[in-house]
């Protein structure tokens, strides 16, 4: 019995003991983790290769595909009024679950579109999907403005990085099996039937995510002096720490989505990878790497703060798209290398971004600040990045000489090069202006890393050659 308890012992136990969390709070966090697991399965099944392939079957070109990817980002504009409504009502749980269920259930209807929407005119099914994705994003706005401030109130700052990294490690493990299963369904059930199974099952599990929050206790919201939209926006823009981070993340979101939103389309299209190949070398490989590295990043962030982690990880994130410049049809190893290296650092700057967005926002206006942050970064960053990237991909074949005549590389690789340049500009121009949430700096992290490497080298046993 003792052995079984050790095997199945919760990895969060020591963190909860360190943070002094009560039993009721621990119970709430268990339900939240379970909900996050279902939510991650929902995202893995409905986004990525499934949505990319579905758009292709429905006849979307690069620009319309960009619109499909950008619509959920445009829907985040609803987060500002959502934050005001939630702040005035003081009931995060009610709003999050009500609109969250609507947002997730919309994907069940997405899977059924080919069966109840007529085939003519040819654009009707595609734009019906885009409309439903937009409805889902509007409902999802309430999830973001409710969940993130709620989580910030529950998990103490000094253990938050390790808690999030531990949660993400478990989620990544589950994502490995989900990714393989989704790819298998799409490969072995061609046509609309495979997509219907994936989206309907994903939507059901997304609803289960929201229902898990029935078991989580709602913490009292700190009442703000003013819950009007314009005054809160003005105050947020005057907050130098918050505003600087918001401007960086907007630029970073634009740069990464300019090319990153089309990577899976590139893998399934010009690279000619199957769903299973793209999933194994993409989502699954990234999830496995995340499991191994994210706990280390969480410890580093709790010790040195978010800014050093952000600087290192974003700089490496600037260089990873260069790997795709060596891609060729049927060669999956390039896509594997891109995702393995990318996941090593992508998990780190996502972790730092979540933690910094919470620490930069005041407790009494956290919902409004996070809503403003999400609106600005998603609209002016990710939305326009995806939209412009799709437009460039659609126009480049017209403006550039054909490949067969010895012209420039294909349009996807040109977009990846432009994305690298934009990322580097965001990192070197904007990250130095950010304030860290710890007293440590990137120089201290670099010095400690140098000492660690020196100790590792000195303790390494020397190889002795045996003479015969």
Number of strands: 0
Total helices: the number is 19
Strand fraction equals under 5%
Radius of gyration computed on alpha carbons: 23 Å
Low-confidence runs: 1-8, 403-408, 461-468
Describe the structure.
77% of the residues lie in helices and 0% in strands. It has 19 helices and no strands. It has helices spanning 2-7, 13-19, 23-46, 49-57, 62-74, 79-89, 92-116, 124-154, 157-188, 192-211, 229-238, 240-260, 263-268, 275-304, 306-319, 332-359, 366-399, 411-430, 442-459. The chain is mainly alpha-helical and 468 residues long. Helix 7 runs antiparallel to helix 8 (124-154) and helix 14 packs antiparallel against helix 15.
What order do the helices and strands come in, and which of them pair?
Elements (H helix, E strand, L loop, with lengths): L1 H6 L5 H7 L3 H24 L2 H9 L4 H13 L4 H11 L2 H25 L7 H31 L2 H32 L3 H20 L17 H10 L1 H21 L2 H6 L6 H30 L1 H14 L12 H28 L6 H34 L11 H20 L11 H18 L9
Helix pairs in contact: 2-9, 3-9, 3-10, 4-10, 5-8, 5-17, 6-8, 6-17, 7-8, 7-10, 8-17, 9-10, 9-14, 9-16, 12-17, 12-18, 14-15, 14-16, 15-16, 15-18
């Amino acid at each position: 019995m003792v052995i079984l308890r050790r095997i199945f012992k919760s990895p969060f136990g020591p963190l909860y003991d360190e943070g002094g969390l009560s039993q009721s709070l621990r119970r709430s966090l268990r339900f939240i983790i379970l909900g996050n697991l279902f939510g991650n399965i929902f995202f893995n099944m409905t986004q990525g290769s499934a949505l990319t392939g579905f758009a292709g079957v429905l006849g979307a070109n690069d620009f319309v595909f960009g619109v499909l990817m950008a619509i959920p980002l445009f829907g985040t504009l609803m987060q500002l009024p959502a934050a005001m409504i939630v702040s005035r009502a003081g009931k995060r749980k009610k709003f999050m679950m009500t609109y969250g269920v609507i947002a997730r259930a919309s994907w069940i209807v997405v899977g059924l579109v080919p069966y109840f929407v007529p085939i003519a005119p040819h654009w009707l099914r595609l734009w019906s999907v885009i409309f439903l994705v937009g409805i889902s994003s509007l409902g999802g706005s309430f999830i973001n403005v409710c969940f993130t401030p709620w989580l910030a109130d529950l998990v103490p700052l000094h253990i938050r990085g390790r808690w999030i990294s531990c949660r993400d490690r478990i989620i990544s493990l589950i994502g490995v099996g989900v990714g393989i299963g989704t790819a298998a369904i799409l490969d072995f059930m061609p046509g609309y039937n495979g997509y219907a199974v994936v989206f309907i099952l994903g939507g059901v599990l997304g609803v289960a995510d929201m229902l898990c929050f029935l078991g989580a206790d709602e913490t009292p919201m700190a009442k703000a002096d003013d819950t009007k939209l314009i005054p809160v926006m003005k105050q947020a823009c005057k907050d130098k720490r918050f505003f600087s981070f918001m401007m960086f993340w907007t630029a970073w979101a634009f740069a990464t989505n300019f090319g990153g939103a089309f990577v899976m389309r590139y893998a399934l299209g010009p690279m000619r990878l199957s769903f299973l190949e793209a999933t194994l070398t993409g989502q699954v490989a990234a999830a496995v790497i995340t499991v191994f590295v994210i706990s280390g990043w969480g410890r580093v962030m709790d010790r040195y703060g978010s800014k050093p982690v952000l600087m290192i990880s974003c700089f490496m994130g600037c260089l990873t798209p260069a790997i795709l410049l060596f891609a060729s049809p049927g060669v999956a190893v390039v896509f594997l290398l891109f995702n393995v290296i990318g996941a090593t650092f992508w998990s780190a700057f996502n972790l730092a971004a979540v933690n910094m967005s919470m620490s930069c926002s005041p407790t009494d206006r956290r919902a409004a600040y996070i809503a403003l942050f999400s609106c600005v970064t998603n609209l002016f960053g990710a939305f326009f990045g995806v939209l412009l990237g799709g437009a460039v991909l659609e126009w480049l074949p017209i403006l550039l000489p054909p490949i067969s005549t010895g012209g420039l590389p294909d349009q996807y690789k040109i977009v990846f090069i432009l994305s690298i340049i934009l990322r580097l500009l965001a990192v070197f121009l904007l990250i130095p202006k950010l304030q860290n949430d710890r007293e440590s700096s990137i120089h201290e992290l670099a010095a400690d890393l140098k000492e660690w490497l020196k100790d590792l080298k000195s303790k390494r046993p020397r190889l002795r050659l045996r003479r015969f």
